[in-house]
Amino acid sequence: MKHVAALLCGVLFAAGLMVSGMTDPARVVGFLDVQAWDPTLMFVMGGALLVTTPTFFFAKRQTQPVLDAAFRVPVKTEVDRRLVAGAALFGAGWGLSGLCPGPALVSVATARLELVAFALTMVVCLFAVRTADVRRVLRSLESKATRVDGDTHEAALREATVGDE
Amino acid sequence: MASGTQRALMRTMVSPIFSLASLYGLLGGLLIGLSAALLWLLNGRIAGISGITAGLVAAPLQEVSWRSAFLTGLLLAAVVGALTQPQVFGAGVPPSLPRMLAAGALVGLGTALGGGCTSGHGVCGLGRFSVRSLVATLTFIGFGMLTVATLRALSGAAS
């Protein structure tokens, strides 16, 4: 059931991106262009927040989600250099292309070389950073632990992803 | 009472804000919000595309499986969209391949280091009143605007 729900959410997400106009890079670049500003992205974010904000608020009363054991809340609260530097790099790539990760993956369906190449490069970089993060935490856990097993790996994965939204 | 000129002026000021594109934007935004709300209420997960994708590696099977299901749904809908409504991907010609490769690398590295993208920080994080997400969102919008302004200045200087 969990997987059916996830699949449905993926369908809804892509439908929302395509309906909203966010799969057109020109619209996104228009939002980022202060000299010829296109407000569409503001309405997209506003519309989404109109639903997510009350949902997150009222879900606090629930002890667990309907189909799983626990809510996975991003636990990190500290604003660090890594967060700001990452967001700055992402912003630069976003401005260069008009594509953020959602529309980039959806655009693969056009089978256009430039768009597929963008998505592939993006995914390879996401995987590379995640792999390096988990390895680094795993090494430091292994140097402390007396016994290394699957739990150590899971702990490393948890620790490597504390700042993940 | 507003004169004809005043009304014309108001129309030009108001119409770019309340255009048909804004309405579709709002509607699409509500769908994205619904997706994020359902993923939270049903599965207890944040609908951040970069986070969902990054979690496919170095992860146990039960993590990989739901993420694959989400991304399969995303791509299925995308294929249906590309076949039936190809205009949603825009009429513009994509930037050159080298520029797209550089941009793809920046987006991948940036969202991995920053722990989220427009959906994770912008739609879910802001909805949870996360300070990290607010800082990230303002930063990537700011740097996006800076990049577009730089490109505009460079192309202006070139012509």
Q: Could you characterize what this model shows?
A:
The complex is a heterodimer of chains A (165) and B (159). Chain A is mainly α and 165 residues long. Chain A contains seven helices and no strands. In chain A, α2 packs across α4 and α6 crosses α7. The relative contact order of chain A is 0.09. The mean pLDDT of chain B is 91. Chain B has seven helices and no strands. Chain B has one domain. The radius of gyration of chain B is 20 Å and the shape is globular. In chain B, α6 crosses α7. Chains A and B meet through α1, α2, α3, α4 and α5 of A and α2, α3, α4, α5 and α6 of B.
Query: How would you describe the oligomerization state of the chains in this entry?
Result: heterodimer
Strand tally of chain B is: 0
- From the alpha carbons, calculate the radius of gyration of chain B and give it in angstroms: 20 Å
Major protein interface: A-B, 123 and 118 residues
Amino- and carboxy-terminal Cα gap of chain B:
47 Å
Structural class of the secondary elements of chain B?
mainly alpha
Shape of chain B: globular
Name the helicity range of chain B: over 70%
Tally of separate domains of chain B: 1
Global mean pLDDT of chain A: 94
- Biggest sheet of chain B, open or closed, and with what strands and sense? none
Tell me what portion of residues of chain A adopts beta-strand conformation: under 5%
Question: Can you describe this structure in just a few lines?
Answer:
With 165 residues, chain A is mainly alpha-helical. Chain A has helices spanning 2-20, 25-32, 40-59, 81-97, 101-106, 113-144, 150-160.
